[in-house]
Specification:
Chain A has two helices and eight strands. Chains A and B meet through strand 1, strand 2, strand 5 and strand 7 of A and strand 1, strand 2, strand 5 and strand 7 of B.
Chain lengths: 126, 126
């Protein structure tokens, strides 16, 4: 049975997907796929998302070249979300960091603090 | 500034949070928090979620006792989602598996296949 038929897409026709590093297992980003994006992801082996701001399916990394090669796709117990293990090219985050989750909440300071350093300069890529 | 003020909650007042194992970094589940659930999570150090089916804030593991102790909270680059590193008690999934993402998509068989074995017997817990 096609994977899409085993999943529940929400009222907008989307399913959230945790994208995580196949090696370190660190979460990289959260994205949303519609049925077409999922089929394109499986067919090409590269993560495709439904970009709500653009209203269409896009290759993740279409502009930057920072694509994500699919290693494994997991579905949650209820078929409401996916977790996709990937090999990330360069970096997942448009802000230049490897992961979109580079800001850690510091309870004592009540502030979000960037961890590590950017891998690329966004002003030279976008 | 309170963490909630640095985030964007969606039109239902929710923000998605990737819950992942603080040790192995594996994704465990995806849940949704409203402002109250986030405040309760930070105040108690235990993950609280807004359970849509119940229409209220609940301690994750309220019924099973399988709670998640917060180790670190990360916000994504745009403040649209969270990633919370936790110490998981027993298992994250109500189906008995450690992670909700225990079903791997097998491309050749076009099927979801359970990986590993359940940690507990759901019929004895719920």
């Amino acid at each position: 049975m096609p994977l899409a038929d085993m999943l529940h897409f929400d009222e907008k026709g989307l399913i959230p997907a945790i994208i995580f590093d196949a090696g370190t297992r660190e979460p990289l980003t959260l994205c949303y796929l519609d049925r077409a994006a999922l089929e394109r992801t499986l067919a090409t082996g590269l993560v495709h998302v439904f970009r709500r701001s653009h209203g269409r399916v896009m290759l993740k990394g279409e502009t930057s070249g920072h694509t994500q090669r699919v290693v494994d796709v997991f579905a949650d117990c209820e078929g409401n979300s996916l977790a996709i293990a990937v090999e990330q090219k360069v970096a997942a985050c448009h802000a230049g960091y490897y992961t979109c989750y580079y800001r850690r909440y510091d309870r004592a300071k009540d502030a979000l603090e960037a961890q590590g350093t950017p891998i690329f300069d966004p002003s030279k890529v976008y």
